Amino acid sequence: MTADTIALLKKIAKQFGKSVRNLNGYDANVCTSPFHPERPWEILALPGDIFRHKLGITVAGHKVTLRANAEFVVAEIPADIDVELVSINRRDKLFQLKETSLRVPDFPELKVFSRSSSEDIKEFLGLPSLRQALGKLRLKQAESLHIYRNGPVLYSQPESSEEILQAVEAVCDLVEKLPPLDDTAELNTLPREFKKLFPLMRTWAISDDELKSEILERKSRKELAEFVAAVEPYFPAINEYLDSFGDRAHSEAAVALGRLAECAADAKIILGENQEN
Predict the structure, then answer these.
(1) Burial 87-104 (b: 16+ CB within 10 A, else e)
(2) 63 vs 55: CA distance, rounded Å
(3) How many helices and strands, by DSSP H and E, does the chain display?
(4) Alpha-carbon distance 203 to 92, whole Å?
(5) DSSP string, 103-166
(6) 22 and 76 belong to one structural domain
(7) Same-domain pairing of 123 and 159
(8) By the 8 A CB rule, do 230 and 194 touch?
(9) Are residues 145 and 231 in the same domain?
């Protein structure tokens, strides 16, 4: 039986001199709450299913966000890494990855999910650093490691706070040994009309909500206003482009573009609140 994940999060928070914050997050990889049949945007939350708590800490120089619901503690380690999308032990539902016949050497029991069985995937699965990380993680049946180009995400069902931190350290060590991402080529897959936004993406296309909040809070009103002015005219075109994917998974560049727009929208809200005050 999984330990009290919220209590574990609070114990880690105390250890790092941090506080656990409130969250209202649905994660399709592990959440099973259904959607309202007539209002698909509305989630009919099951008890303990939605992620209600999060904690930001720094481990081995890496910012880490921990999220918890009644069953899982999820660790997100933001990083720009040059890897193909892959999930290990459970299918990634966000990007609709498919099960492959590939396996990590020494870990034949762990299923591998990807978009293809390319040589790049095979090379990644054969990395000694990945095998070393998996040896430390010892993934249980419902646990999984998801590798994205903006950083790995670990879904765990820990028994102790020590187990969480040891797992996070193992994933941080893996990140250090993976090649950094040169995102220029990926961004060039976007329509040319968005080219002027490329320089903004590295600073503002932020996947981690807590890190995004911290960055927005540190920016001056002038910086926020300039950022919003640069991105806001593209909102309609960005929405139209993202909608064009339909049921297909968004490309990494499209995801980054969406995050840029979300950050600009958040900055605009902050500017409005400051003006009211």
Answers:
(1) bbbbbbebbebeebebeb
(2) 11
(3) 10, 9
(4) 27
(5) -BTTBTTS-EEES---HHHHHHHT-HHHHHHHHHH---TT-EEEEETTEEEEEE--SSHHHHHH
(6) yes
(7) yes
(8) no
(9) no
Quote the number of domains for the chain: 2
Tell if the pTM clears 0.90, that is, is over it. no
Q: What is the spatial distance between Cα 39 and Cα 209, in angstroms, rounded to a whole number? A: 25
The pLDDT of residue 101 is 94
Answer whether 50's CB lies under 8 Å from 24's CB.
Answer: yes
Residues in the chain: 277
Give me the amino acid identity at 73.
V
205 with 143, same domain? no
Tell whether 66 and 87 lie within a shared domain: yes
Q: Rounded to an integer, what distance in angstroms lies between the CA atom of residue 163 and that of residue 169?
A: 10
Of the residues 122, 146, 176, the one at which a domain ends:
176
Cα-Cα end-to-end distance for the chain: 49
Do 158 and 3 meet the contact criterion of CB atoms below 8 Å apart? Answer: yes
Pair 136, 202 in one domain: no
Whether residues 120 and 94 share a domain: the answer is yes
Cβ count within 10 A of residue 110: 18
Q: Sign of dihedral through CA atoms 183, 184, 187, 188?
A: negative
192 and 123, same structural domain?
Answer: no
**Domain, as residue range, for 55:** 5-176
Domain boundary (153, 176, 199) is at 176
Q: pLDDT (tens digit, 9 = 90+) per residue, 32-84?
A: 999 888 887 788 999 999 999 999 999 999 999 999 999 999 999 998 888 88
